[in-house]
């Protein structure tokens, strides 16, 4: 029988995390995480210690729950690792910063395949490597339900871009793919595995990691990452800034495969773009259209008042994802 | 009917987190968390931003799982909050540092009482206030099993004290209560609620938050917090330092109620001290007995070799807690 993993050559392919044991598994997991030069103390002690030269740290945390945020039959362990990392890296991106360090906690059933745990860690580490961030610590414990807890630390080179700085007259702009992951999730939910591009976008989002810092440098007045739906996040931005936001549907890019899915399901493909999350696009406001950096496109406007409209009218239909 | 909580006066006492709704509940939770002066951006944006003047950050993360680390019928929501915070604050303590900021993620079933969630947050905030730390962010999501994910950030005034610095000839020393929580957990497991002092020690540990920084100032060579059992943690320290450790039972304080429990259950009360965790005592090594700061007591010695002995002999019986 082949081994569960080259890192644990004595374990058979179907070995569980309980078979591996806590400390051998932690050792194997930790060996997958390369440490950057800023890591003074890495995994293995009571805490990690990081050098911080910037005078500040940006921090955010997110939970990822099996059956709620992912299904093991819809995405590989590596995919889930990529996604769990991406949604946290995106929170720093949305402040105009860049992540440098993460911790990851894994609460896992005893019968979780050890190959899944290591695959998850490989995907997680690979996503972090895209921005040069290190996984500096973690926790492993037993649970009935598989839960991943991630905390990300990062830094900004400019002043952090908050949700609260949008002003009437600003231009609303979007960076990154939007609606793709929602389309992928929808077809998976109907039992299909295509269009492939959408399913892959759901499994491994590609957040625009350069767009956040670029927006901060360009003077973005407010920014949020689109994790729960474009209109929902626009609503958060409008509420925090005390402004009204209008989204123009003719300015939204509707990816070709979304048209195909919309036609097959009898749905308006624009709805994926308006209500979809999980791509981790960025939504920001800028003082004027001329200040948009590369990768950003104008999709609406900011005015006096409150709330979000679509093409100047109130929107009927879902705006995003609700957790309870 | 009385309200679930003064913060949510329109909800009845038996309201669930699903009744409260995600954003009202997050608003109520966030209002419980006071922000220190170092918090430049607190809860409510994509990420928090903290001022860091020390040039470094200490970071650790821990998961707390219902049914595994706590039972709602054995401890109040406030107790679970205290405990979840304490075990994380303790990880920074064990580096010789002090925590300044925490994030907390709550994965909760839809039928979790909103009063539980707010009670948990109050206990969590109260424990953090003991060291002056702020809860700067969090996440709330739905799950089948109640899981709490905490990440703590802190700073050291001296060089961080690692697990790996113990040398032959060092004195092994302990700070804080040890064995109390294990005694409390044992009687709860047998269906008893007394001795009260032990049950309370299990519900709300009292980590010696001043002892970690004091040990660092006094030149401690290695340190670990006793979360999984005194002998188990001594073993981690011995392995990381490449030394042998001997624990002297005649130097261990065995609290009076532990004698009572031992007599009632026919168990050696010293076993609670040797194998118990959850008090979050600190175990450290110092160059000599004269360097022990107040609150620390010598409990053994460091020698050449490897492994842990008790009174010079190998120990039969449990050494601590295993997660898988």
UniProtKB/TrEMBL annotation, chains A, B:
Mg(2+) 4 binds at residues 46, 60, 91. GO terms for biological process: thiamine biosynthetic process; thiamine diphosphate biosynthetic process. It is an enzyme of class 2 (transferase). Keywords: ATP-binding, Kinase, Magnesium, Metal-binding, Nucleotide-binding, Thiamine biosynthesis, Transferase. It catalyses: thiamine phosphate + ATP = thiamine diphosphate + ADP. Substrate binds at residues 69, 278, 321. GO terms for molecular function: ATP binding; magnesium ion binding; thiamine-phosphate kinase activity. Its EC number is 2.7.4.16. Mg(2+) 5 binds at residue 228. Mg(2+) 3 binds at residues 46, 91, 225. Mg(2+) 1 binds at residues 61-62, 139. ATP binds at residues 138-139, 163, 227. Residues 44-155 form the PurM-like N-terminal domain. It comes from the Bacteria. InterPro entries: PurM-like_C_dom, PurM-like_C_sf, PurM-like_N, PurM-like_N_sf, ThiL-like. Residues 168-259 form the PurM-like C-terminal domain. Pathway: Cofactor biosynthesis; thiamine diphosphate biosynthesis; thiamine diphosphate from thiamine phosphate: step 1/1. Mg(2+) 2 binds at residues 62, 91. Reaction mechanism of ThiL seems to utilize a direct, inline transfer of the gamma-phosphate of ATP to TMP rather than a phosphorylated enzyme intermediate. Belongs to the thiamine-monophosphate kinase family. Catalyzes the ATP-dependent phosphorylation of thiamine-monophosphate (TMP) to form thiamine-pyrophosphate (TPP), the active form of vitamin B1. This is Thiamine-monophosphate kinase. The gene is thiL.
């Amino acid at each position: 029988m082949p081994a569960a993993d080259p890192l644990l050559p004595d374990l058979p392919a179907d070995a569980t995390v309980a078979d591996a044991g806590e400390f051998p598994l932690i050792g194997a997991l930790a060996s997958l995480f390369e440490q950057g030069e800023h890591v003074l103390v890495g995994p293995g002690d009571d805490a990690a210690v990081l050098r911080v030269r910037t005078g500040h740290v940006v921090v955010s945390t997110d939970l990822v729950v099996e059956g709620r945020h992912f299904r093991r039959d819809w995405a590989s362990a590596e995919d889930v690792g990529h996604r769990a990392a991406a949604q946290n890296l995106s929170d720093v991106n949305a402040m105009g910063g860049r992540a440098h360090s993460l911790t990851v906690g894994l609460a896992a059933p005893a019968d979780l395949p050890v190959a899944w745990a290591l695959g998850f860690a490989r995907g997680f580490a690979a996503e972090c490597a895209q921005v040069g961030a290190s996984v500096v610590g973690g926790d492993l414990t037993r649970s009935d339900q598989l839960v991943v807890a991630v905390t990300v630390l990062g830094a900004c080179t400019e002043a952090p871009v908050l949700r609260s700085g949008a002003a009437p007259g600003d231009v609303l702009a979007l960076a990154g793919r939007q609606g793709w992951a929602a389309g992928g999730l929808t077809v998976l939910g109907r039992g299909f595995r295509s269009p492939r591009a959408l399913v892959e976008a759901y499994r491994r989002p590609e957040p625009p990691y350069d767009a956040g810092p670029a927006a901060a440098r360009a003077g973005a007045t407010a920014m949020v990452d689109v994790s729960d739906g474009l209109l929902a996040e626009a609503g958060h931005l409008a509420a925090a800034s005390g402004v009204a936001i209008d989204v123009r549907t003719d300015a939204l890019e509707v990816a070709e495969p979304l048209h195909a899915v919309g036609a097959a399901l009898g749905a308006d493909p624009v709805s994926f773009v308006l209500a979809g999350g999980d791509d981790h696009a960025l939504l920001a406001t800028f003082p004027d259209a001329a200040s948009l950096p590369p990768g950003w496109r104008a999709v609406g406007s900011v005015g006096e008042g409150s709330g979000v409209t679509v093409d100047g009218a109130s929107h009927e239909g879902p705006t995003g994802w609700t957790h309870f």
